[in-house]
């Protein structure tokens, strides 16, 4: 049973006597101003936990339903709500490298700004220079839908694509004739370059036949590798 009294400064106080502690006078706080006082102390003390706020209030103030007011101030604080941990039922997210699989993957990164945790989700979509949907698994569909990969920083990508299209036409004919496909040699490639027409019309890359003939000693090995890669 607590007994209220009037202190020398005119405030209503309650004398508190705890074991092994000196007596202390607690200021009585009316219910009408209790919520405002607890919220102000919560912000002034830099958002303490509910237990820490209860210790401060019990040391200096006395009011009915003080624990309830302290809990309400802590639950209604947006800053404290942003610092709460995620429920254990959720999948924990962490920073990691994007997936190498084809499709869409999500990678989460936890940032900390001004005592607030921010969850940043990055969406990663794998992409290729070309793609093809094959309608069935028949041999002809698989052969016609086969694509040649595109390598970055390679000026012969267009030629590689043309050779892959030529491959789809030549291989069935050779299969019907039972002819074996042998590897191309640099000598054969060089001979084919010299037989090119010397026309001025350029392709999509702006390359004309004269460019190949003048640089045959540089591009012969490269074109030979492309031919052997496709066939």
UniProtKB/TrEMBL annotation:
> By what name is this protein known?
Uncharacterized protein
Species per Swiss-Prot/TrEMBL record: Mytilus coruscus (Sea mussel)
Domain of life of the source: Eukaryota
Q: What is the lineage of its organism?
A: Eukaryota, Metazoa, Spiralia, Lophotrochozoa, Mollusca
